[in-house]
């Protein structure tokens, strides 16, 4: 066997398409909420793989089940079904409003499927609406639903669509949490309203409860489907299995991914039997969706996360984070406010520190802490749901070191 050449961060620039700009360090091992890089540096992980690793790195039970399944069978194609995916679908439908499930590989694919299903459903039921062309999708500025041409067009951030035109049509963007704007715009032409219960990439912005309740009422009145994009908020992230449960607003379609596989790629769509009927054989598909390995991991993730201990633990850890962040801010005054739900939190920078979110993330890496941004002015925290309290406290101590440096630097300037 030939010896493999060493790889470094420079290797990325040499061989990879430059659509990412990754960190200088290369992680090679993780355990729980800790990560180690190529040269042995240790980090506390407050990113959770961008809200993916809900149970942390190398969870022993997930390692066990994927090893066991890998020795049996991996893939047969969707001309057949398999036991793990049927157990997963049954588990999700029993735990949620849904009656039917569809599986794919990512949140992007789940949202693509949801939007296609909404338009197909509208087409199937056109006669009941006197033949009105019902294809319009209402979405919201600063939302994020994926990077396909369709989903990136639905997402309300122009920077992600520049240079990719012509874009899919019949998509209308309105301001998040502005119910009056939706009431003025929704009509018989609207087939769906898609919304994140908490905008993740858009700055960790929770929805106003009255906004979501109002969307439900407006969709019912106009015959539009209400789609909740819970790719980032799902699987316990907010302290509930899905965020719709916190708000008490039931969508028609829910999309899920990220933490569903704890790092193994899987996405899903949940809906009712009536709506699901519009995806008759041949209308939609996914080669790898719901394969043996992904479904096995996701099934065990669901069992582990959907427990009182984990979900209540998320709420308790939320309070620990907020208390710690507020104490840091009382000493340094860098942040205007903290927002979010559960363990999806955003620290919003004061105007005096505008645009410095990425600088803080980069500086944190240098002291052994992994952080995220949510735009240029928001630091995002999305650690494992089961992160030990000692790691929260140690990570916040490292965070304060960075915040202190930024604060002092700003004063000198």
Automatic annotation (TrEMBL):
<keyword id="KW-0028">Amino-acid biosynthesis</keyword>
<protein>
    <recommendedName>
        <fullName>Acetylornithine aminotransferase</fullName>
        <ecNumber>2.6.1.11</ecNumber>
    </recommendedName>
</protein>
<dbReference type="InterPro" id="IPR015421">
    <property type="entry name" value="PyrdxlP-dep_Trfase_major"/>
</dbReference>
<dbReference type="InterPro" id="IPR015422">
    <property type="entry name" value="PyrdxlP-dep_Trfase_small"/>
</dbReference>
<dbReference type="InterPro" id="IPR049704">
    <property type="entry name" value="Aminotrans_3_PPA_site"/>
</dbReference>
<feature type="binding site">
    <location>
        <begin position="229"/>
        <end position="232"/>
    </location>
    <ligand>
        <name>pyridoxal 5'-phosphate</name>
    </ligand>
</feature>
<feature type="modified residue" description="N6-(pyridoxal phosphate)lysine">
    <location>
        <position position="258"/>
    </location>
</feature>
<dbReference type="Pfam" id="PF00202">
    <property type="entry name" value="Aminotran_3"/>
</dbReference>
<keyword id="KW-0663">Pyridoxal phosphate</keyword>
<dbReference type="InterPro" id="IPR005814">
    <property type="entry name" value="Aminotrans_3"/>
</dbReference>
<dbReference type="InterPro" id="IPR015424">
    <property type="entry name" value="PyrdxlP-dep_Trfase"/>
</dbReference>
<feature type="binding site">
    <location>
        <position position="144"/>
    </location>
    <ligand>
        <name>pyridoxal 5'-phosphate</name>
    </ligand>
</feature>
<dbReference type="InterPro" id="IPR004636">
    <property type="entry name" value="AcOrn/SuccOrn_fam"/>
</dbReference>
<feature type="binding site">
    <location>
        <position position="147"/>
    </location>
    <ligand>
        <name>N(2)-acetyl-L-ornithine</name>
    </ligand>
</feature>
<keyword id="KW-0055">Arginine biosynthesis</keyword>
<comment type="pathway">
    <text>Amino-acid biosynthesis; L-arginine biosynthesis; N(2)-acetyl-L-ornithine from L-glutamate: step 4/4.</text>
</comment>
<dbReference type="InterPro" id="IPR050103">
    <property type="entry name" value="Class-III_PLP-dep_AT"/>
</dbReference>
<feature type="binding site">
    <location>
        <position position="287"/>
    </location>
    <ligand>
        <name>pyridoxal 5'-phosphate</name>
    </ligand>
</feature>
<dbReference type="InterPro" id="IPR017652">
    <property type="entry name" value="Ac/SucOrn_transaminase_bac"/>
</dbReference>
<keyword id="KW-0032">Aminotransferase</keyword>
<comment type="similarity">
    <text>Belongs to the class-III pyridoxal-phosphate-dependent aminotransferase family. ArgD subfamily.</text>
</comment>
<comment type="subunit">
    <text>Homodimer.</text>
</comment>
<keyword id="KW-0963">Cytoplasm</keyword>
<keyword id="KW-0808">Transferase</keyword>
